[in-house]
Give the backbone structure.
Amino acid sequence: MSCERRPVHAISWREPSRQRLLNNRCISILKGCESLSGRKKDEIVAELNEKLSALRDHEDRLQREALERAGKRDKLNERVKDLRDEALELQSQRDELNNNVKELKQHRNEMTAGIHERLEKIRKLGEEGKALAKRRPPRRHEVLQKEVENIDWTIQTTSLTLQEDKELVEKVKQLETQLSIYRKLEQLAKRIAQTRDEIKTMKSEGELLHRQLTENAQKSQETHRNMLEKIEETKTLKKEADSMHKEFLQVKERTRSLREEVKLVVNQIRQLKGEIREEVQRETKESQEALRETLERQAKEKLKRGERLSWEEFQLLAEKGMAEQD
């Protein structure tokens, strides 16, 4: 089988099928060039070394690419972690605000219920006042009070008979009964006024609660919206990180395949160098044997001609004779 030098073409790393054909071609070269001279094999080794250098350069590029992918992936995952922590913090804030809203609503409802209770109290007091007003004496409170004071003064300062004293005391009782109606009306008026003041205070507190409730509800909605934005950003970055990790694994797989290819070329070079070394040793031995035979022949011719042999020629013929005797 004849074998001539075949050039190593530029390697296309994006065409694995072409690369496999190139590898198979290199194997075929090794199998088909066993009979080549050492010089031809040296040329093939040089071509394989060029290919090995290109493969290792590409391996270095792939390793740098893998490190770049891993670095981007790790940064994305770190950002994802930070965003998740931020989302959890926002969720905690939102829940706290929602609890505040719930408590404020409960307090506001209690306040509203208290206002309704007091309005009902005022209504009942008003009805009670209306009933008392129907029993109100025809004379005014001041007139009745003045008359009671005058009678008391008369009793204290005037000498009265038992019958007169009895009549005046009875009259005071009647007047006091009429005055008690005015006193009850005054008490009712005070209770109504006090209850209205309580309602006014409670309404003010209710308005404050409503403002606080609205503010907390708005903050809760805004916090919830921010939390959802963080979650969506987290999902987006997580997809990017997963994609970057996938690319990292793909580059690592390409690197692994490339290392196998490097190993194959290294083995090819070693095999060729071994063959070259054996061929050199064989050629050296053959050259030495040819030289020895030439020297022996020349020595024998000198001996036949009766010429004097050198010590080296003598030793050569002596060793030859000993070898033949053995």
